[in-house]
Structures are given as structure tokens and as C-alpha cells.
């Protein structure tokens, strides 16, 4: 891995896939409103950061939860977003990572480096995965152990979607 941001995004992809596998193993989780809405939010925000750190040649495609009538479609949206985030990062020079971008939903708009924006994407996803893990346990499921240190211990495994 060339940078800690690359490690964070690779961990994010692995952790997201582990959560999806845990949801699928506990049928009730896929039908739970809180898990569905929060998982949609996680992947929407990942796509927003993908767009913000990219070339922005087109307007951001703001999705709604209704755009994903089946959980399999939401899972694919998440898988694609994670893969694109990590793929884009691998092509960024250090100069591009440190260049600033504007986060438009802050008022006033916030200007930060791409590196900080990508770190925020990973941290934000981690926060909401924790909420989903708690909810999965409440539903009688077993949340996966997705701590960063576990990912390191296990040899930085690739996501198994």
C-alpha cells in the first residue's frame, strides 16, 4: 500500500463487504429499515466523495433510496463506489492528493485537501458501520469484526462481496 489513505479505503471496502455478508446471513437484516437507510447513506456519501475527489465532469448523481428497490442493487452500488474510490486513489499523485477541493454541502462551503476528504469518507463509513453492527446484534444477528487492526492482523484481505 502506498499510503495510509489507500489502506483506509482498502479497509473500508473489506469492512463494507463483511457487513453485507453478515446482513445476508441474517435474513431479517436485509429487511430492516434502519440498516437499509443507513447502508444507503454510507454508500451515497462514498459516491459523493468519489465525485468530489474526481474530475467532476458531470453533476453529482444524487440517488434516493427508492432508486434501489432491491438490496442487491444497493450492494452493487456500494461495491462499485468502493472499487472506484480505491482505483482513483491509485492514480493520484501526491500533489493531486494535497490539492484542495470544496465540500459544497457545508455552509459556508469548506475547502480541504483531497487527502482529508478521502479520510473523511473512510471515517464516516466506519462510524455508520458501527451503528449497523449494533442494530444487527439487536436483530439477533452476529456483526462481523471489522476493526482496522483485525484487517491488518489478517494480512489486509481483499473485499469478498
Number of domains: 1
What's the total number of strands?
A: 2
> Secondary-structure element sequence?
HHHHHEEHH
Radius of gyration: 16 Å
| Low-confidence runs | none
Terminal CA distance? 21 Å
Q: Do you know the CATH topology?
A: Four Helix Bundle (Hemerythrin (Met), subunit A)
Strand content: under 5%
Quickly count the helices. 7
The CATH class designation is Mainly Alpha
What structural class do helix, strand and pairing data support? mainly alpha
| Overall mean confidence score, pLDDT | 95
Largest sheet data: 2 strands, antiparallel
Which second-level CATH architecture applies? Up-down Bundle
Strand order of the largest sheet: 1-2
Considering the protein shown, what is the CATH homologous superfamily? dinb family like domain
Shape: globular
* Helix content range: 55-70%
Oligomeric state of the chains present here: single chain
Task: Walk me through the structure.
Helices cover 65% and strands 5% of the residues. The protein is built from seven helices and two strands. α3 packs parallel to α4 (71-91) and α3 runs antiparallel to α6. The longest helix has 25 residues, at 114-138.
Amino acid at each position: 500500500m502506498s499510503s495510509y489513505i489507500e489502506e483506509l479505503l482498502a479497509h473500508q471496502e473489506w469492512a463494507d463487504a463483511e457487513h453485507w455478508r453478515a446482513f445476508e446471513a441474517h435474513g431479517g437484516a436485509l429487511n430492516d429499515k434502519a440498516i437499509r437507510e443507513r447502508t444507503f447513506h454510507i454508500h451515497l456519501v462514498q459516491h459523493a466523495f468519489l465525485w468530489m475527489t474526481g474530475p467532476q465532469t458531470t453533476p453529482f448523481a444524487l440517488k434516493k433510496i427508492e432508486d434501489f428497490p432491491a438490496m442487491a442493487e444497493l450492494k452493487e452500488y456500494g461495491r462499485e463506489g468502493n472499487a472506484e474510490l480505491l482505483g482513483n486513489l491509485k492514480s493520484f499523485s501526491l500533489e493531486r492528493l494535497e490539492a484542495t477541493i470544496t465540500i459544497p454541502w457545508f455552509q459556508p462551503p469548506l475547502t480541504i485537501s483531497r487527502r482529508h476528504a478521502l479520510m473523511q469518507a473512510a471515517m464516516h463509513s466506519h462510524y455508520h458501520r458501527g451503528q449497523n453492527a449494533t442494530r444487527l446484534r439487536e436483530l439477533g444477528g452476529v456483526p462481523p469484526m471489522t476493526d482496522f487492526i483485525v484487517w491488518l492482523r489478517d494480512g489486509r484481505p481483499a473485499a469478498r462481496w
